[in-house]
């Protein structure tokens, strides 16, 4: 019966209220346990929430990236701090080591804070797409705000999470449970 509901895309915001009334506390406990065992898990879950199934947002204040995703920036771009580039190249050679990880926030890699924005201002953004947030365009003012005011960053982030959490799912035949959240079934 459950497979029938999932297969037909019938969504309900109260689906688990009777079948698993403790689902939220169970999820909370499991997430806390996973993050305590592997600090990168928090970043992975945030990215899953923002990137994979909702919207493409750069929320990179914690986590790591594979060498293959930032090598071109490291070796080819001019808007990168030279000492940052040199130290990062030690772990990411010009060829090979594709799966070697480097922190997205070199200052405080496992802490959710505004150091990521301080790094962007100092041309220490690991990913090309991140450094573009502070490259003379319309997002410079937002980066400067978060760089200088950690409380504003945390408050805005919390408000965005609440706003996203308050979006009601499409139910019945209006929505669908995607087998691949990047594309419509």
Automatic annotation (TrEMBL):
Removal of H(2)O(2), oxidation of toxic reductants, biosynthesis and degradation of lignin, suberization, auxin catabolism, response to environmental stresses such as wounding, pathogen attack and oxidative stress. These functions might be dependent on each isozyme/isoform in each plant tissue. It comes from Cannabis sativa (Hemp). Coiled coil: none annotated. The keyword NAD does not apply. GO terms for biological process: response to oxidative stress. Heme b binds at residue 60. Keywords: Calcium, Disulfide bond, Heme, Iron, Metal-binding, Oxidoreductase, Peroxidase. It comes from the Eukaryota. PROSITE patterns: PEROXIDASE_2, PEROXIDASE_4. InterPro entries: Haem_peroxidase, Haem_peroxidase_sf, Peroxidase_pln, Peroxidases_AS. It catalyses: 2 a phenolic donor + H2O2 = 2 a phenolic radical donor + 2 H2O. This is peroxidase. It is an enzyme of class 1 (oxidoreductase). Its EC number is 1.11.1.7. Pfam families: peroxidase. Disulfide bonds join 67-92.
């Amino acid at each position: 019966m459950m497979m029938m509901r999932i297969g037909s895309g019938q969504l309900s915001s109260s689906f688990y209220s009777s079948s698993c009334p403790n689902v939220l506390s169970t999820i909370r406990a499991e997430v806390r346990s996973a993050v305590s065992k592997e600090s990168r898990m928090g970043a992975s879950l945030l990215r899953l929430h923002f990137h994979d199934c909702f919207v493409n947002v750069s929320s990179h204040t914690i986590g790591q990236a594979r060498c293959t995703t930032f090598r071109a920036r490291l070796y080819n771009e001019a808007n990168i701090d030279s000492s940052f580039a040199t130290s990062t190249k030690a772990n990411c050679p010009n060829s090979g080591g594709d799966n070697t990880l480097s922190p997205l926030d070199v200052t405080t890699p496992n802490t959710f804070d505004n150091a990521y924005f301080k790094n962007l201002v100092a041309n220490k953004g690991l990913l090309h797409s991140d450094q573009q947030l502070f490259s003379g365009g319309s997002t410079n003012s937002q980066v400067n705000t978060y760089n200088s005011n950690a409380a504003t960053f945390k408050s805005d982030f919390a408000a965005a999470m609440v706003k996203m959490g308050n979006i009601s799912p499409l139910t019945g035949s209006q929505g669908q449970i995607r087998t691949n959240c990047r594309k419509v079934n």
